[in-house]
Specification:
By secondary structure, this protein is an alpha/beta fold. Helices cover 49% and strands 14% of the residues. It binds phosphoenolpyruvate (PEP) and magnesium ion (MG).
Length: 575
Amino acid sequence: MSHSITGLPAATGSALAPAFILRTEHAVADRTPGTPEEETTLLEQSIATAIEQLQDIAAKVRDEVGEEEAGIFDAHAMFAGDPALADMAKGDIANGTRADIAVATAFTTFKEMLMSTGDEYMMARAADMDDVSNRVQAIINGVDLTVAVPSEPSVIIAEELTPSQTATLPKELMAALVTEKGSATSHAAILARAAEIPAVVGAEGIIAAVEPGTLVGVNGATGVMVIDPDEHEAEEIELRIQRESRRKESLAELVNTPGQTKDGQRVELAANIGGLEHLPLAVAQGAEGSGLVRSELVFQDRTTAPTAEEQAEFYGKALAAFPGNRVVIRTMDVGADKPLPFVNQDPEENPALGVRGVRLSLERPDLFDAQLRGLLMAYRDTTDGGRLAIMFPMVSVVSEFKAAKQRTLEIAQELGVDTTNLEIGMMIEVPVAALLADQLAEYADFFSIGTNDLVQYLFAADRLDSRLAKLAQYLNPAVIRLINQVVKGANRHGAWVGICGESASDPAMAVIAAGLGVRELSMTPTAIGEVKDTLRNLTMNQCNNAAELAMNCTTSQEVRERVMEIISEARGRLG
Ligand code: PEP
Ligand code: MG
């Protein structure tokens, strides 16, 4: 009889295919160690071989997937060749440790540093360290880590997939990927999304629940897997696969059309960017620029602060990706859920209420000035690239915004940069800033509403605590009314308003926001198609009605139901 297992959705799309269980060989094997000199030579040779292998994988990925994904393996080759790791291992070998054990210890030390940050992204990078460490150990021990390959398109099931396994399995044989462990921000998940392979992670118990060849239905959007579906269930999954493929085709036709309502009111649909690797996907999905470049994410792998020049190089690439469109780069929002290894912060009782975002930038002129220099250098040097907008996170009161803006203009003057066309704005994510929007708009060119934090602070509910997920109600009438107040305040001084929290990906929120006067929505790139299609089916009048109605509902469920009725009705009429 069929049954289902639910994991965490990591890459959208559905599949129905036989299970292929991928088991990872253990890199550790019995081996008689040589003298410390022989073990040191073996270590050096094995590291060189690992680097060669990783460079080969990078070349394959560069050909088959893309430049940015290939960068993951360039980075792995760099980890493998890191002199600090080799020195640490050599120290242990000199004291009589086997080369492979010494490698494992050195990598574990580095990995523990990443894990101790408690940050989800950093912890996901720990899986990369394991991947490289395993490779070097396997080479030392003469173990072949090449994974078996299925003979037909299959649902690949593994305890954990390493980035190199994900990259080396032939794409056409991966109907879907399912892992017992891992997170949606692991590189394996990132690679799956880039290659458009449905993926589910954290699916505990899946390996025990299937035999090789068992038919498995995967829904990458919900994380639900149906094991051994009956005829009726299999038919439903097949129909969903067909529906998804038709929907994808029809949304693909909209890629080059602008975000606007049926009667032509523009609402720019932009992408949220967290690293170089997100740029090609955003462009491919038709993003009209970026409404949020999370600069702290771009540099979170660094152990030392990036220089102004290093930062300018990345910002220049972000601007160049969107010729003619606006690129809103947020200054580093360090602290709370996003600590950075190169920023030492004193422990805080309540980090979410602590020195984060612009509060930290104003306390640390060394970091802030380097970032502003990098941004202004990129702005100065861009030729046919995007139009830069600089945005400050976590602003509460007018004096913080004025201080951050003043420093930006001082540095521009030092660099001789003409700021006539530079926009300087801020996020609205602290309730007090939302309430003071009319005053802040005197100084800010724009506001971008960060509903992730705004909702966290409005409801006093930690956004990282899954037990409080029910309170993350961005469609609650209180939030809609507050957004209305922000737009009204902004309009008094001609500032424009966008939304860059996750809620911007939700078609219901997009319609309400358009009705309230929000003119830019920045979201996960893959959500752009659905939001665009929704807005293009509704008139401004319908959006205004949706907004009015939402403000007068009593619960977020009621808001969603009523707005979805308006959306379905508009779609129905069209069809
Ligand atoms: C937000 O708070 O809504 C936002 C977009 O910022 P972040 O999620 O990076 O805190
Ligand atoms: Mg935020």
